[in-house]
Write a structure and sequence with these properties.
The structure is a single chain. The protein has helices at about 1-10, 30-35, 105-110, 170-185; strands at about 20-30, 35-40, 45-50, 60-65, 80-85, 90-95, 95-105, 115-120, 120-130, 135-140, 155-165. The termini are far apart. The chain has four helices and eleven strands, in the order αβαββββββαββββα. The protein has a four-stranded mixed sheet with strand order 6-7-11-10. Strands 1-5-4 form a three-stranded mixed sheet. A two-stranded antiparallel ribbon has the order 2-3. The longest helix is centred in the last third of the chain and has 14 residues, at about 170-185. Strand 8 and strand 9 form a beta hairpin. By secondary structure, it is of the alpha+beta class. Helices cover about 20% and strands about 40% of the residues.
C-alpha cells in the first residue's frame, strides 16, 4: 500500500527514494552545435543520452529514474549529467553569440568586399564594409549558435584582423605614397 508506505516513511524518516546521482559528459563544440548522443554506462547497462543542439557548458540533463534505485521503480533517483563543452580553436560561444576571427586583406578593409567563414558544415558569406578597421567586430544575424530547444540561431560575430601587405614592389609603394601625399595635403 503506497499511502501506508508514504505515511510510514514520513513518520519514521525511512527514505525509500533513491538518491540522485551525477556525472559529467564532455562533448566538442561541433557536437553541441549539431546535437549528438552518447552511450553512458550505468551499473550493468548502457543507455543512450540524447544531447540537443545548442547545449552550453555547465547545462544539466536530468535523466529520470536512472540514479540510485529506490524501494520501487517510481522512487528511483535521477541521473543528472553536467555538460562540459571542450574549447574549440576556431570558435567560442557566449551570450552574444558565436565568435570567430577572420583575417582580411588591407585592400578589402579599405574598399570593402565579401568574406566567407567555414562554420562547421556551412560556408557563411558576409559583407566587409569599406573602411573596416583592425579589431572591428562584424555581426551576421542568425548565423551563429543554435538556441537550445528552439529552431533559431544566435548571431555570428566576426573579429576582423587586417593583413598589411608585405610583398609590395616599388610601383605599389609609389602608388601608396601618392595616396598618402594627397591626404597629407602635399
Amino acid at each position: 500500500n503506497q499511502n501506508f508506505a508514504g505515511a510510514f516513511n514520513q513518520r519514521y524518516g525511512y527514505n525509500a527514494k533513491g538518491r540522485n546521482t551525477t556525472g559529467v559528459l564532455r562533448i566538442t563544440l561541433a557536437d553541441a552545435y549539431y546535437g549528438t548522443s552518447r552511450d553512458v554506462g550505468i551499473g550493468m547497462k548502457t543507455i543512450k543520452v540524447d544531447i540537443p543542439p545548442g547545449i552550453r557548458s555547465g547545462q544539466k540533463l536530468r535523466l529520470k529514474g536512472l540514479g540510485q534505485r529506490g524501494q520501487t521503480e517510481d522512487l528511483n533517483g535521477d541521473l543528472i549529467m553536467t555538460i562540459e563543452v571542450i574549447n574549440d580553436s576556431n570558435f567560442f560561444v557566449d551570450n552574444q553569440g558565436l565568435h570567430t576571427i577572420k583575417n582580411i586583406s588591407f585592400y578589402d578593409a579599405i574598399l570593402g568586399g565579401k568574406g566567407s567563414i567555414d562554420c562547421f558544415d556551412k560556408t557563411i558569406t558576409f559583407t566587409i564594409p569599406p573602411g573596416t578597421t583592425n579589431g572591428k567586430v562584424l555581426r551576421v544575424k542568425g548565423k551563429g549558435f543554435p538556441v537550445y530547444k528552439q529552431s533559431t540561431f544566435s548571431d555570428l560575430l566576426i573579429s576582423i584582423i587586417v593583413d598589411i601587405p608585405i610583398d609590395l614592389d616599388d610601383e605599389d609603394k609609389k602608388l601608396i605614397q601618392k595616396i598618402k601625399d594627397k591626404h597629407n595635403g602635399k
